[in-house]
Amino acid sequence: MLNENLIFKKANDMSDIFTYLKEGHLPFSGGTDVLIKLKEGFLKNNKVVYIGDVPQLRGISIVNDKVVIGSAEKITNIIEFFEEKNIFPALKNALLTIGSVQIRNQATLGGNLGNCSPVADSIPMLMCLDAVVNLVSSENKRKLPLVDFPKGVCQNALLTGEIIHSIEIPLSESKNIQFYRKFGQRKEVAIQKCSVGAYIEIEKDIVKDARIAIGAVYTRALRVDDAESYLNGKSLSEDVIKEAATLISAASKPITDIRSDEEYRKVMVGNGFYEEMLKAVKSEK
User: Fold this and answer.
1) CA distance 26 to 10
2) Three-state DSSP state, 210
3) Structural element, H or E, at residue 50
């Protein structure tokens, strides 16, 4: 059961949020992570504030060639928006692997980011898409590349008094290959064993801009700089793809736990990239 000493507040606007933050309340919007932690006693803080109905944190729009997503927007609504606009297919697929339909109807993108678990399904593809996080406090606003937001296991770059306001994802008309591959016990309702995402811009059959990110193989999701640098300027032959996959495996520093072992994760994160890239390249021909 929940802590009987729990102090619950509901914010109606941004001013409410900052007032409650100063009083030491922990903000949440969907609650799919926070409520479990409260129930299991993993959170020392007994003061929480619900921010999911604050209008400034909701909505999805296209502004100046960027998609702007409010941090409290539900995962299901984001998936439907991507489907309607025919954009970000790999990120849409990543979001579809989060929990179940019921969880996605309640969970929010800001919550998935803020929790900053190494196994968060949204983060690798957001990194690949060069997403930016808009952070706000009562005194300040700042933008942070999403790749710099995770700092460790369930640790992020939020400063005291800050919340995630929204996430920006740039749109691109460049020819590209993009995919997200997750390894788990099941396709849904399963925490990932490891994952790999990629966004590869191609110009005249040469890689112009390679972005690759991996999840659940380090203390946080991360971009694979060595593999990206190796691919840039090359044609996507099978040998080139195989070498990039080797570099991806080498960049991973997984652990052995109840879900999987270190060697499996290291091998599969590279194999996942190799298989998905080869499939994508063959489909282009």
Assistant:
1) 11
2) strand
3) strand 47-50
Q: Per residue, what are the HEC states of 67-81? A: EEEECCCEHHHHHHH
State the architecture of 55-170 in CATH terms. Answer: 2-Layer Sandwich (3.30)
Quote the tokens at residue 244.
């990039």
- Could you state, in order of their start, the residue ranges of all structural domains in the chain? 7-50, 55-170, 176-284
Buried b (16+ CB within 10 A) or exposed e, 207-221: bebbbbbbbbbbebb
CA atoms of 227 and 236, how far apart (whole Å): 13
pLDDT one-digit tens code per residue, 168-223: 999 999 999 999 999 988 777 888 999 999 999 999 999 999 999 999 999 999 99
Backbone conformation region of residue 116, classed left if phi is above 0, alpha if psi is from -120 to 50, else beta: left
Would you give the DSSP letter of residue 234?
-
Q: Which of 87, 239, 243 is nearest to 171 (CA)?
A: 87
**Residues near 141 by Cβ (< 8 Å), separated by ≥ 6?**
134, 135, 165
Supply the pTM of this predicted model.
0.94
Measured distance CA(80)–CA(60) in Å, rounded: 11
Q: Which of 95, 101, 260 is nearest to 169 (CA)?
A: 95
d(CA 22, CA 191): 34
Cα(125)–Cα(115) distance, integer angstroms: 16
First-to-last C-alpha distance (Å) of the chain? 57
Domain 7-50 class, CATH top level:
alpha beta
More confident residue, 58 or 6: 58
E strand spans, 100-140: 132-136
Q: Is the dihedral of CA 145, 140, 113, 90 positive or negative?
A: negative
Alpha-carbon distance of 36 to 42, in angstroms, equals 8
